[in-house]
Every structure is written in C-alpha cells, then in structure tokens.
Amino acid sequence: MAHARVDQFRFARSEWLRGLEGVSEEDATRHFGQMNCISWIIGHLAWQEQLCWLERAQGKMLFPKLNELYAHLAPMNTPSLIEILDIWHKVTEAADLYLDTLTTETLQSELPIGLRINAARRIVGSALQRVTYHYWYHIGEIQSIRQMLGQKNLPDFVGKIDTEAPYRPE
Questions:
Q1: Burial 107-126 (b: 16+ CB within 10 A, else e)
Q2: CB 3.0 to 4.6 Å from 84: which of 38, 41, 67, 79, for a disulfide?
Q3: Which of 131, 128, 127, 61 is nearest to 91 (CA)?
Q4: Containing domain of residue 93, as a range?
Q5: Is residue 149 part of a domain?
C-alpha cells in the first residue's frame, strides 16, 4: 500500500484528469491574453513531476525538452494535447515507481539535487506537498479557461475523496 501522502497526491492527479475530460485539441490550445493554454499546463506538470521524482530523486531524464519548454517562467508555446498528454502519462508512470517506495522515513529525507546545480534544497515530503498543491492550483486554472471557452457542466468541487482517498493515519 502506498503512503497516505502518496494516495492524496494521486487523488489530486485524478481530479486534475477529471478536469480535463471532454477538452478538445482545439480548446486545449487556445490562449487568452498572456495565460498559458491547457496543453501547456499539462506539459508544465509533466515537467515538475519529471524534475522532482525522476531527475532529482533518481538522476533520470525521460524528456529533456520539458526543461526547455515547460519549466517555471518558460516562454508561451502551444503543444498538441494528444502528444503532451502522452508525455505526461509516461512521466507519471515512471514517477509512480519511485512514489511507491516512499515511507514516512524517506518522506523526511532530503530530496537529492539530481542533475540541477542551482536547485533549492527540500525534503521529499515537502516536495510531495508542493506538487500536490501545484495540481490543485492548475485544476482551478483549467476550469477557469474552460469557463472562458463557454463550456458548461464542468466539475465544480472535489470529487469522491471519501471513497477514493479518505483520511488514514500515516
């Protein structure tokens, strides 16, 4: 069984995916002013997962282009929804192998710097919380974009947390 914090993280991912249901290629690549499009947000979250769970934690790099195109403050671009979602799935599948190994003890250990020289030091548990909250931030952003696109009947609150990710002691 995965650590309780990992279960909560996976629930955030599943809610994020629920928020993407029904998004078309055309809608995923629409920009409003200086806002990034939905497909860019997908690449951005793939970048953060690769950075934390693959690059820093294990010294692995599946998609170097994520660092160029989707890092914090990277220039606006418009990737294909299908292509970037495929990359996100590959990154998260690889990340899950690491996340499944986490224990209360390892969550309290320092996350290695990995391949980055100027990376901020952080413990694994804090990184896990940061990435979890990052997903929730972008869930709201994506729902706002979808509202601006005129879409209706969007997910409007946290889903089935009581059955899919209930509280349990660590």
A1: beeebeebeeeeeeebebbe
A2: 79
A3: 61
A4: 4-156
A5: yes
Residues 18-28: pLDDT tens digits? Answer: 999 999 999 99
Q: Is 57 domain-assigned?
A: yes
145: tokens are 């974009």
Domain count, the chain: 1
Nearest alpha carbon to residue 86 among 66, 100, 60:
66
Q: How many CB atoms lie within 10 A of CB 65?
A: 11
Residue 46 CA to residue 25 CA, distance in Å, equals 18
Is 163 within a domain? no
114 part of a folded domain: yes
Per-residue pLDDT, 87: 98
Residue holding tokens 């793939």?
46
